[in-house]
Amino acid sequence: MKFETPAGVNPIDQQKVIGQPASRLEGPLKTTGTATYAYEYNRAAPKHAYGYVVGAAIAKGQIRRIDRTKAKAAPGVLAIVTAADVGQLPPGQFYVDRLLAGPAVDHYHQAVAVVVAKTFEQARAAAALLKVTYIATKGAFDLAAAKDAAPLPKPGPYSGPSQTNVGDFKGAFAAAPVKLDATYTTPDQSHAMMEPHATMAHWEGDKLTCWCSLQQLNWGARDLGTILGIPKENIRLISAYIGGGFGGKGTALSDIVLASLAARAAGRPVKVALPRPLIFNNTTHRPATIQRIRLGATADGTITAIGHESWSGNIPGGGTESTTASTKLLYAGANRFTELRLAVLNLAEGNAMRAPGEATGMMALEIAMDELAEKLQMDPVAFRIKNDTQVDPEHPGRPFSSRKLVECLQTGADRFGWSKRVAKPGTVQEGQWLIGVGVAAAIRGAPVMTSAARVRLNRDGIVTVETDMTDIGTGSYTIIGQTAAEMLGVGLDKVVVKLGDSTFPQSPGSGGQWGAASATSGVYAACLKLREAVAKALGLNPEEAQFANGQVLAGNRHYALGEAAKAAELVAEDAMTYGTLARQYAQDTFGAHFVEVGVNRYTHEIRVRRMLAVCHAGRILNPKTARSQVIGAMTMGVGAALMEHLVVDKQVGFFVNHDLAGYEVPVHADIPHQEVVLLEGLDPTMSPMKAKGIGELGLVGVAAAIANAVYNATGVRVRDYPITLDKLLGKVSLI
């Protein structure tokens, strides 16, 4: 099915099941510990062995020699795999990192070997006996030091041009009566998901099955095939449940590659789980940025010039952090300039992490908007509303498909009590606490991608949905089940959802905020085809048939749904593809974040006291799971604002705090009352579902709102994240 014109009235609009706050279908499995994750498929591959990955002890150089004598003789050892055994492996199409070092080492903890033994303890002990001799060479680990020589990168497949110009930015900025020129920094960050990267691999002849933790299975099979040099068709990936990903499990990484190599070498199934230090230094992360923002405005608050320059680093061949993506679309302004520069650094690969580019870019832009509002002596909410636009600022002939940013800001201001805000910083006090409030706008792209599904109907009226879509804790099982239930007129209890198997029809997987809208649209297409098959089987006109309450009705005739499959199971498969609407309209989601903080005037401890997010993302497929996504993102925003910082040892070239003890993320005690408002508003240009993704929108802008609240509380403007108390010491008035 091809979606080429805006959607009209369709079965989804009934919203008998879709749009309702259904609890997660897989919730009981997860809460009882019976959901099977990648490392737990013991019955599927009995007599499995264990692989333990050895990471490089240098950040750049060469492997001179690997002495495996003692390791090979250790108890239980079955195999040791290095690049000397399998040759130099090429990268996949998504990640550029070589997943097995040799002879060159590209970054610290790049895998140099996997040791396979009968037990995990034996594999770990033997790995410690592996003696690797290196020739270390000088590397680059400091973004600030590499900044001035960083070139403009070539556009990547998931990023636009590295430089854009509209109008005369330099002239308009120079002439602006009120202007801001400030630099902001964001640090390297880790995904820090609960479930580690893990895989169990099993070969049967030349066929490979991997039980894994991947967000995009078709990409994973493609990339794993490329790396191993085998046809994609020979690979089956199973990823039924994922314990968090945030973009860090997009496709094939070292766990799945080394488990596959180890299983082939050992001649039996092998499971591999990366220890935390390897996750932080071996896999991917959100790269640090240095951002310069220049804003110019007239005295009445009309923005006349917007400039955003950004620097990030990556390993050779890696992509840039697209921090300017939001700046291109969020506010009006006739004269505009954006630029991305990319330095080569010998740290682990920087790649997708929840709202890549937008999250870090808005950490800077939305502080800058507050700073300019203060110079203008304008309310920050009013300043943002004044500079709203209903068209793409870089391409004025391209309107937004739907844009309720102003309504998000106004609704949030009303719900949060923004009118009581005291503009002068450091004014509001409660005992030892200085109280401040902050705001930030939010924008995140809402792409939809080709997605397919297969739908089955049996004689009992049970509908089974199959697609290789994954669920990383987002509620995919539930909204896909709700879609099928709505389309076929049955309750959610009559739907079985099967996900996470690469042999199922292909979806784009989880990521990029495209998963929900894309995967449900694929299910819609398959269900539409099944409705036709049901009607024909019952001798009804498909155009007249209605599906409701487990019945199929047309005129005065009605049948139980299962009667259509009385003779044999009915099966329908289809994919949703798209025309040019995404080029005709700017398709984005919008929101506003409001935060209240308390800062202890003596210790400078920062506590977030309350948070509000107002989001507009088309039809909300399930308000319960959507709210869950938003509050999780808000929590992640607290971490980005106040805690998260992968500290780089600039001499040795690695992330020092490479575990969950040293890398701080929010815990329950850090998170206050969170309120989420989901604005009504369908978007018929997206798909028949009229929905957009929301999982990344909830993060974008949160950190800046917290930063703005800290400033309102203390009068101290911190432009270097995270905002830790040492950055306030000696600057907060004690009077």
From TrEMBL:
Gene Ontology terms for molecular function: iron ion binding; oxidoreductase activity
Domain of life: Bacteria
InterPro entries linked to this entry: Ald_Oxase/Xan_DH_a/b (IPR000674), Ald_Oxase/Xan_DH_a/b_sf (IPR036856), Ald_Oxase/xanthine_DH-like (IPR016208), AldOxase/xan_DH_MoCoBD1 (IPR008274), AldOxase/xan_DH_MoCoBD2 (IPR046867), AldOxase/xan_DH_Mopterin-bd_sf (IPR037165), PaoC-like (IPR049648)
Sequence ranges assigned to domain Aldehyde oxidase/xanthine dehydrogenase a/b hammerhead in this UniProt record: 32-138
Gene3D superfamilies to which the protein is assigned, alphabetical: Aldehyde oxidase/xanthine dehydrogenase, a/b hammerhead, Aldehyde oxidase/xanthine dehydrogenase, molybdopterin binding domain
NCBIfam families from the UniProt entry: peri_hyde_PaoC (NF041671)
PANTHER family reported for this sequence: ALDEHYDE OXIDOREDUCTASE MOLYBDENUM-BINDING SUBUNIT PAOC (PTHR11908:SF123), XANTHINE DEHYDROGENASE (PTHR11908)
Protein name: Xanthine dehydrogenase family protein molybdopterin-binding subunit
